[in-house]
Write a structure and sequence with these properties.
cilium, mainly alpha, Radial spoke head protein 3 homolog, coiled coil
Length: 384
């Protein structure tokens, strides 16, 4: 027998089964050894899956019997077990290396087939046969026969000839009278019912016509009443609107008269206040104040700043020249220039004299400018 399904496919499709390799149980004594209470407390199986006392797997298949000998394992037995483990590991490796059957195409599945010469039935289940027996059905109890009392007395018979007890013509006459009478009565009742129904229908038609006429008259009266109410409401609204407009017109007339009386003295006072506040002004004067005077002041300020800058520069130059000459005069003269002492002081005195003349020339011009614009000069000096 050769399986044609891969190990992965078989594990996925087939039912779950315990796959541990079979092994023999270790030898153990017949009776348990007496252990202390502390050791007993240590062995505590909280999960039945790890409890060795629980039997796992198929309980119907034959299980290998444990060895009966209680002798300790010898070296030869250990070697045999080790060789068995190696053999099983090699076989398991070969099975894993062996290529499996490819996956089935869509719509098909792999099945196990027998490849031996003679086929045999293989089953993991014990053959079971159902047997049954059937008892006879319960028979119904036969019915109880009728009670017939015993016959007593003598039988007497009387001979009756034809026509002695029943005459058809005589006996049928009352029956016919009853049948004919009932038929005629039923016909009369049906005719009377039809006439009554026709009268009822005529009354119903007349009543329907009268009701329709009354309903039409009622609708006409309701419509007339509705038109009268609408007209009354419209007239009332028109009157209210007229009164509102009259009141609004009277209020407008009164407000206009009040406004005219109030504004008679208000307009002159408003114009006076606006004129006092400066809203009414001369355009030429405003132009001079807003355009010309600021421009003039800015130009004067720039001119004064230029003059102040020139004076400042001139003062700095004079200060530098004075300091330079003071340094030169403070140095001792060299030995080669001891001759002619009267000539050099004359040259040196000329320069201070010239500078003094320049200061004297500039001072009257400055004083003249200050007298011309005393107010304009004060502002740049303050700003500088």
């Amino acid at each position: 027998m050769e399986p044609t399904m891969g190990p992965v496919q078989a594990a996925a499709d087939g039912p779950y089964s315990f796959s541990s390799q079979p092994r023999s149980l270790p030898s153990r004594p017949k009776y348990r050894e007496q252990s202390s209470a502390a050791e007993t407390e240590k062995v505590r199986y909280g999960n039945i899956m790890i409890d060795p006392r629980v039997v796992r797997g198929n309980v119907l298949s034959a299980r290998p019997s444990p060895p009966q000998s209680t002798e300790p394992l010898t070296l030869e037995v250990k070697r045999q077990k080790r060789a068995q483990k190696h053999t099983q590991a090699r076989r398991l490796t070969q099975e894993q290396i062996r290529p499996g059957t490819p996956e089935p195409v869509e719509g098909r599945v792999h099945v196990h087939v027998q490849t031996e010469l003679y086929l045999e039935e293989i089953s993991d289940r014990i053959i079971e046969v159902d047997g049954e027996c059937q008892t006879d059905e319960f028979l119904d109890r036969p019915p109880t026969p009728l009670f017939i009392p015993a016959k007593s007395g003598k039988d007497v018979a009387t001979q009756i000839e034809k026509g002695e007890l029943f005459d058809f013509d005589i006996e049928v006459k009352p029956i016919l009278e009853v049948l004919v009478g009932k038929t005629v009565e039923q016909a009369l009742l049906e005719v009377m019912e039809e006439e009554e129904l026709s009268q009822l229908w005529s009354h119903q038609r007349a009543f329907a016509e009268l009701r329709n006429a009354e309903f039409a008259e009622l609708q006409r009266l309701e419509e007339q009443d509705r038109r009268i109410r609408e007209e009354k409401e419209r007239r009332r609204l028109e009157h209210l609107e007229k009164l509102r407009k009259q009141k609004e017109t009277a209020e407008k007339i009164a407000a206009r008269a009040f406004a005219q009386r109030y504004l008679a003295d208000l307009i002159p006072s408003v114009f006076n206040n606006l004129h006092d506040s400066g809203f009414f002004y001369d355009p030429i004067e405003r132009d001079i104040e807003t355009e010309f005077l600021p421009w003039l002041m800015s130009e004067v300020e720039e001119e004064l700043q230029k003059k102040v800058l020139g004076r400042t520069m001139l003062d700095s130059l004079i200060r530098m020249v004075v300091e330079t000459r003071l340094d030169e005069f403070s140095r001792p003269p060299p030995a080669a220039q001891t001759k002619g002492p009267a000539e050099e002081p004359g040259a040196t005195d000329a320069a201070p004299k010239m500078s003094g003349e320049e200061d004297a020339a500039d001072q009257p011009a400055a004083e003249k400018e200050e007298t011309d614009q005393p107010g304009a000069e004060e502002e740049p000096s303050d700003s500088s």
